[in-house]
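Hi all, long-time lurker, first post. I run a small reading group and we've been trying to get comfortable going from sequence to structure in the token notation. Rather than ask abstract questions, I figured I'd post a concrete chain and ask someone more experienced to write out its structure so we can walk through it together at our next meeting. Sequence below, copied exactly:
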Amino acid sequence: MLRWTTAIALIALFAGVAEAEHWQADDPQYIAPLVSNFAIERLPVRGPGAGNYPGGTCVLVVPNYEPSSDPISEILPSVEQIGVSGPFIVGRAGPTYFLFDTRQSDKNIQYFYPYNDWLAALKAAGISDVQVKDADAYAASLPDRLTHPWNYAVMHGCLCLSDDEWSGIIEGTCLVAAFLAGIAGRPRRFRLATVVALGMVADSLGDGFIERDYDGPGLLILFFFLAVTTIGFVFGTLLRLAAKAVRRLWAYFAHPPGAAV
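-- Answer (accepted) --
Happy to help. Here is the structure in token form:
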């Protein structure tokens, strides 16, 4: 029993590390729509991100809203502040301020330095009411469904929950079900089938179908969920055995052998 549990724990640890690495390097942090078909995208912290830009960079893009994919068109990297006024996108990229008229088909961005030259250009373009924010603050002011649309692609926000939250519910339910199966003490010939079935449901339905995690280390993640449901089953079994032992001790001390009835 000890060797079996140790092997399961090692598999869970190894596969869990692989899953954590995959999660950290997966999707963009957000894609915040601006005006027309333009958006500001913060690239994943890990990995090369889109194009040749480092991870964590904000890029003005014409986005592709599929997760783990490069934007269709990268227009301006290193965006730190952003604002929208009518068809205009304005802000700061590094030390340089910019003015972008989205009605222009050639995507010609005007750059200004110092700050006063940029203000004069805004005034000349008839822009007087624009509010420029940090890119992260702008994204935070929008609903999560706008900034992470791929996270609502399967369940479509059912019960106001994202796909990640639904995936967690399914995986947690499988773990609880394995734990309860251990408490119930199913016949031995059904125990392995129960653990395997729950692990496969957590992997294929929760992690695969809902989170659409098809490009991750699939076999390792299946082992991870199998190990997790097995550990839940083992803990349920241990709790059942502990409860049985407590009942026997209670019966022993309540009615010790040889005591007068």
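A couple of things your group might point at:
DSSP finds seven helices and nine strands in the chain.
Residues 46 and 186 are 44 Å apart (CA to CA).
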